[in-house]
Amino acid sequence: MTVGGFIYDPQLLQKGADFFSLGIAVTRETTLRLPIYLTLLTSLLTLWITLQMREVEGEKNRELLKSVIRSGSRFVWYGRPGVGYSELLSCWD
């Protein structure tokens, strides 16, 4: 939250612009618009990445799901007696 708060500080952003020799004047009105622009940029990037996703077909999907369950259960239940990932995978066999 502190890093996000720096976006609203015109003096700090002006120092950054001067450090990189951008030659722009940062005003309070500009800093109040930055979070809106950054949110728009993040949403467009997220949309683009989401549209690049493809569904895994058939048996590959089942093997991928088994792999995720194995690795997740090893992480969560490692070292607890009586709990193993074989019980979790029994419903997929």
Quick rundown:
The chain has 93 residues and is an all-alpha fold.
Descriptive report:
The mean pLDDT is 80. This protein has five helices and no strands. It folds into two domains: 2-51; 58-92. The chain has helices at 2-6, 10-19, 28-51, 58-77, 85-89. With 93 residues, the protein is mainly α. 0% of the residues are buried.
Number of strands: 0
How far do the termini sit from each other? 46 Å
Please tell me the overall pLDDT: 80
User: What is the count of helical runs?
Assistant: 5
Structural category is mainly alpha
The percent of residues in helical segments reads 55-70%
Low-confidence stretches: none
Secondary-structure element series: HHHHH
Strand content: under 5%
Whole-number count of domains: 2
Oligomer: single chain
Rg, alpha carbons: 24 Å
Morphology: elongated
**Main pleated-sheet profile:** none
Key words describing this protein structure:
93 residues; mainly alpha; 2 domains
